[in-house]
């Protein structure tokens, strides 16, 4: 049962699409204790209570013990001391062992804090900035039925085309068509499956959105066509900020029609991102959504059918306003070269390093929402939502016959109806294999099914074994994309030694795709989790509460990735009798029947293990080098 409680005057989000009449506060579950102004509530936690959800957030699957702040942030450090990532996914589930289960969704577009047993280990406290929000309380018999009920009120998830499950190769730094061609040719030469190559920001002319560098990407249309003949989809990155340059069509149209976010005085607010000084489209205006979305026609007309939206938190390197204040402050340093004390030094350093994604900047520009001026920070977490919603709607007009692959970096609940997301700038760390594993169920709970992490890790240099282990988790996620940052070691598979093992893994992925796609569609249609924590799948098994590094996949499978360097195996917990498939490739594998309980299993670097429930079998198809040939 879902009860909707409205506090104050919430700004309307479109997270929930089902009409639900507001309930009277008197029927609020007594477990929730509210502050007087209703801007926060607490729940007392029992020792065995676990909390799941919060989608794209840090720490383990069970969220207890830390603070999480929903405040969409361009965060390159996915470390345990951070509170916010790129998305705001405010659904949490209280799982009381052999007791109450409760789903809570805080529908609020500004900063929302979930202190889950951090300040006080036995208390969860949820707070918003101003008491204008909608709280959905979902009650039911089981965790999984509560999640399904929540998913139903937020609407069906976006469905990616089959090729979106194929292997994608990306990197920040492909400068020209030759760089892309090389990826395709190397995959072909080594007989390695491939479906897509991503075009990061370097394809643009001076990072101006909706342009293509004519020298480095000459004869673009022919190039796209040539790639299509090889069944390779090119997927360009699109960033929201529009370069400030007179004579550049996107800029001129934006200025002329008042499409950009304004400062307090009503002037277009300048921010710096990749194109240098730029303006942010005001995606809260319907005409801006339409205008920006229609621009994608420049790509769809030449045959492009996949896009990723980056930097849409929106990321801001600095604003004209903030750089001026920082420059004034730093200028005073010249009078202090003899007298500077350490606290002043830290202050100067903070002034420089704090320029990017600065809270002050987010309070310095405005949107127009239904004719009213609204300060950005009050609706911050909806910026990407509006961008993506608008574009997705235009896809239906500009490319009515195409199934478009579409995912975003930043997000809010509800956006799952229009796009997938990828989890942003992770690092080439073993711990980030565990991180994506932990994020998957929470993302699914919040509606996001088309998801994946940068395979191999975005920041820093990857080693061959780490790339292999990373692939063995991405093997199961809908998005399977190898991506890394500018300046890092070449991360394409063909730069490493044991190509045969990489090929075997990719073949296995392609052999699994039909089954993964079936599970994915089932989860869309029936509002289910693709990845389920064992504690929720086996609610009466106390041992499952401690299993934070395995997941149920679909109804019949369990995955147990290896995420430790040099490990040649790992401990697993079987919540029932299962069969282990130990796979070197789709052809070379053995099965071992194992009993419920704890086991140590060997998983060599070139092996993948999938557990299958007793009486079921793993459905492997014949692999192919491309989804078009499956
Ligand atoms: O400021 O386009 O998360 O995937 O390679 C960095 C360059 C901008 C951040 C994205 C990353 C992408 C990078 N972008």
Concise description?
Helix content is 25%, strand content 23%.
Question: What attributes does this structure have?
Answer:
630 residues, 9-stranded parallel sheet, 14 helices
Walk me through this protein's architecture.
With 630 residues, the chain is an alpha/beta fold. The chain has 14 helices and 35 strands. The strands form 8 sheets. A 9-stranded parallel sheet has the order 25-24-22-18-14-13-12-27-26. Strands 28-29-30-35-32-33 form a 6-stranded antiparallel sheet. The protein is globular and about 70 Å long. The mean pLDDT is 98. The protein binds ligand MIG. The site of ligand MIG has 10 residues, from loops.
* Main structural class: alpha/beta
Q: Share of helix among residues?
A: 10-25%
**Low-confidence runs (pLDDT<50, min 5 residues)?**
none
The count of β-strands is 35
Query: What is the overall pLDDT average?
Result: 98
Strand order in space, largest sheet: 25-24-22-18-14-13-12-27-26
The first-to-last residue Cα distance is 42 Å
Sheet having the most strands:
9 strands, parallel
The total count of helices amounts to 14
Percent of residues in beta strands? 15-25%
Outline, from the CA principal axes?
Answer: globular
């Amino acid at each position: 049962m879902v009860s909707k409680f409205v506090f104050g005057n919430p700004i309307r989000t479109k997270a929930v699409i089902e009409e639900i009449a507001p309930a009277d506060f008197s029927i609020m579950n007594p477990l929730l204790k509210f502050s007087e102004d209703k801007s926060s509530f607490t729940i007392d936690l029992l020792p065995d209570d676990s909390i799941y959800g919060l989608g794209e957030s840090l720490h383990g699957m069970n969220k207890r013990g830390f603070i999480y702040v929903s405040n969409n942030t361009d965060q390159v450090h996915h470390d345990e001391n951070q509170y916010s990532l790129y998305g705001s996914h405010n659904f949490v589930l209280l799982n009381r062992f052999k007791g109450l289960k409760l789903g809570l969704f805080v529908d609020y577009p500004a900063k929302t804090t979930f202190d889950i047993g951090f300040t006080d280990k036995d208390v969860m406290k949820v707070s918003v900035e101003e008491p204008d929000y909608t709280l959905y309380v979902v009650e039911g018999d089981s965790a999984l039925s509560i999640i399904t009920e929540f998913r139903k009120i937020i609407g069906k998830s976006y469905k990616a085309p089959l090729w979106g499950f194929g292997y994608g190769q990306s990197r920040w730094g492909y400068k020209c068509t030759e760089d892309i061609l090389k990826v395709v040719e190397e995959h072909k030469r080594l007989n390695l499956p491939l479906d897509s190559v991503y075009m990061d920001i370097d394809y643009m002319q001076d990072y101006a959105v909706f342009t293509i560098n004519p020298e480095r990407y000459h004869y673009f249309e022919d190039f796209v066509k040539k790639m299509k003949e090889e069944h390779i989809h090119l997927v360009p990155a699109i960033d929201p900020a529009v370069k400030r340059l007179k004579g550049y069509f996107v800029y001129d149209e934006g200025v002329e029609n008042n499409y950009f976010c304004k400062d307090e005085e009503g002037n277009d607010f300048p921010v710096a991102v990749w194109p240098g000084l730029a303006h942010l489209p005001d995606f809260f205006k319907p005409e801006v959504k339409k205008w920006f979305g229609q621009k994608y026609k420049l790509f769809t007309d030449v045959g492009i059918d996949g896009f990723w939206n980056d930097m849409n938190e929106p990321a801001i390197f600095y604003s004209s306003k903030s750089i001026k204040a920082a420059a004034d402050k730093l200028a005073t340093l010249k009078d202090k070269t003899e007298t500077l004390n350490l606290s002043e030094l830290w202050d100067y350093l903070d002034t420089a390093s704090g320029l990017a994604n600065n809270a002050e900047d987010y309070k310095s520009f405005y949107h127009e929402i239904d004719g009213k001026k609204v300060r950005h920070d009050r609706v911050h977490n909806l910026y990407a939502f509006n961008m993506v919603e608008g574009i997705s709607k235009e896809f239906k007009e500009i490319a009515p016959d195409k199934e478009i692959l579409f995912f975003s970096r930043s997000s809010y609940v509800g956006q799952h109806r229009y796009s997938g997301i990828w989890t942003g700038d992770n690092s080439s760390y073993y711990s980030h294999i565990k991180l994506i594993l932990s994020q998957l169920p929470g993302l699914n709970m919040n509606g996001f099914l088309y998801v994946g992490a940068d395979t191999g890790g975005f920041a820093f240099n990857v080693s061959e074994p780490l790339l292999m282990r990373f692939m063995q988790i991405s093997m199961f996620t809908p998005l399977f994309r190898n991506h890394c940052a500018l300046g890092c070691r070449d991360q394409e598979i063909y730069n490493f030694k044991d190509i045969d093992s990489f090929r075997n893994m990719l073949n296995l992925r392609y052999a699994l795709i039909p089954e993964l796609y079936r599970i994915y569609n089932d989860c869309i249609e029936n509002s289910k989790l693709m990845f389920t924590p064992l504690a929720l799948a086996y609610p009466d098994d106390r041992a499952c509460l401690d299993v934070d590094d395995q997941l149920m996949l679909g109804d019949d499978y369990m995955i147990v990735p290896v995420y430790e360097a040099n490990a040649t195996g790992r401990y697993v917990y079987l919540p029932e009798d299962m069969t282990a498939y130990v796979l070197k490739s789709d052809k070379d594998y053995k099965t071992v029947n194992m009993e419920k309980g704890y086991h140590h299993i060997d998983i060599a670097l070139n092996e993948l293990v999938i557990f299958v429930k007793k009486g079921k079998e793993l459905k492997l198809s014949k692999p192919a080098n491309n989804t078009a040939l499956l």
